[in-house]
Amino acid sequence: MLELHTFSHSSASYRVRIALALKGVTSQNHAVSLIANDHLGAAYQAINPEGRVPAVVTDQGILTQSLAIIDWLEDTHPQPSLYPADPWQKALCRAFAHAVASDIFPVQNLGVRRKLMADFGADEAATTRWCAEWIAKGFGALETETARRGWQAGAGYLFADVPTLADICLVPQMNNARRYGVDLAPFPLLVAADAQARAHPAFLSTAPETQAG
Ligand SMILES: N[C@@H](CCC(=O)N[C@@H](CS)C(=O)NCC(=O)O)C(=O)O
Known about the structure:
- The protein folds into two domains: 2-80, Glutaredoxin (3-Layer(aba) Sandwich); 87-202, Glutathione S-transferase Yfyf (Class Pi), Chain A, domain 2 (Up-down Bundle), CATH 1.20.1050.10.
- It contains nine helices and four strands; from the N terminus they run βαβαββααααααα.
- The protein has helices at residues 11-23, 42-45, 66-76, 87-104, 110-120, 124-148, 165-179, 188-198, 201-204, and strands at residues 2-6, 27-31, 55-58, 61-64.
- A four-stranded mixed β-sheet has the order 2-1-3-4, covered by helices on one side.
- Helix 4 packs antiparallel against helix 6 (124-148).
- The radius of gyration is 17 Å and the shape is globular.
- The chain binds glutathione.
- The site of glutathione has 16 residues, from helix 1, helix 3 and helix 5.
- Residues 10-12, 34, 39, 51-54, 65-67, 101, 109-111 line the site of glutathione.
- This is Maleylpyruvate isomerase.
């Protein structure tokens, strides 16, 4: 069986947990606590030398990077697809997901926040402000792009009548936004899309508060 190394409140881990649930793929989960610094220990770094979660152990070897893991799942378990069928919509869906995973999330990562504190004298309040500002900036762009596509609150999921990679990336990032106290009022479309997706059983059953560790 697939083994997933995951941390309950890791948004990148949550993305993979949602994708697994949507695909109906079961996994044996191993909790890697970022609070207890399990990710920095030799045992976990032998699995992921980057010292990040998630990582999956498969029959073929170890795979890291949430979006690579999700695309591997898409290739090996094509149904239900995590993408819209139309190539242009699929590209837009990927762009949405990458904006979250490549641009918004990395600057608020635990290692970055610890470095801001250790080397630049930032306290908890300052790093929270830092995270909130980067999230708000990124969400501003995603809100504009979502409006430009003509998506409206109540239209369902972001790119299809089922959740896609965009929803998978949005919901965990919304959790982070709420954790850092981001004012979500300027992002009504993202808030509506988040509400729609997080009520889906695959999102509910894998949410941080349902997880061990
Ligand atoms: N690009 C990676 C990011 C993985 C990542 O950074 N995960 C976070 C938790 S959400 C982590 O392990 N952080 C550890 C650290 O910052 O030291 C992915 O999408 O899998």
